[in-house]
Amino acid sequence: MQDFDVIIIGGGPIGIACGLEAKKQGLSYLIIEKGPIVNSLFNYPINMQFFSSSEKLEIDNIPFISKEAKPKRNEALEYYRRIVTSNQLNIHLFEKVTEVKNNGGSFSIHTEKNQYTSKNIIVATGFYDLPNTLNVPGEDLPKVSHYYKDPHFYASQKLAVVGASNSAIDAALECYRKGAEVTLIIRGPEVGQRVKYWVRPDIINRIEEGSIKAYYNATVKKISSTEIQIDTPDGVVTLENDFVLALTGYMPNFEFLEKLGIELSLDEKRLPNYNPETMESNIEGLYLAGVICGGMETHKWFIENSRIHAPIIIQSIKSKIA
């Protein structure tokens, strides 16, 4: 069984940043990622453009050069992949963590392929794996997806997009421009205020001109193989429908955190307990990094403001070892 000074669960940008910092400080480390390098970014829509500019996505002061000020998904994949390979980071890909045991002073980490031990663990698992579900009849039909990849798939189809955030609005616009008949179903009274500032006017104009139909203050009531029922202020509306993109956000794996023994707030935010000065949770030797620190407030932490977690955590770990 291999032993490390620190094991990092999650190979996204912040997990990679933690690995870089651990290597720089001379600690033995291992990054464990259940999918490919930056798995969450890999699963983003093909044409996705970041809200942040490239320099704000940089880690460890390694320059991120992009064609435009705000890079796209493929450029981010290239950037983070090159960091991993050129720095020869110790990362195990396509290896899912199945169990973590607290042995009192050290941890046993079990994966689908191996077992490891470490006195310190960093959880940097993000939030993209568990979608917020609609909890309506028909949501389990093959025509319904909580993830959006490529607009070409929906060409010439009647598509309902549920949501009002960046992911939903991007999907609605891209699919409309590839020939889909798009209907937006928005729970609130307007398009989300956090939608990228250069995209929001575009979707509002498309709605106002009638190119995209939008139902505000509306929720999905039922989905069938050929229709979708919507609760609106004017009553139930039934539409012909081929596909549904339920892009209503995602959440961290709270069950995994609770199994680790991490305390979560009892309100709807479900904020994990950690010391912001060290990022150490209520479990000694167990640290949190990245968006997972925000619980259900998944907009609170992102790459540009959580990359500072890496040096904070590694400094705390190194001080213990010293």
UniProtKB/TrEMBL annotation:
Keywords, ordered alphabetically: Flavoprotein, Oxidoreductase
Gene Ontology MF annotations: oxidoreductase activity
InterPro entries given in the database record: Bdr, FAD/NAD-bd_sf, Ferredoxin-NADP_redctase_2
Oxidoreductase found in the keyword field: yes
Keyword Flavoprotein among UniProt keywords: yes
Protein name: YpdA family putative bacillithiol disulfide reductase
Source species: Flagellimonas hymeniacidonis
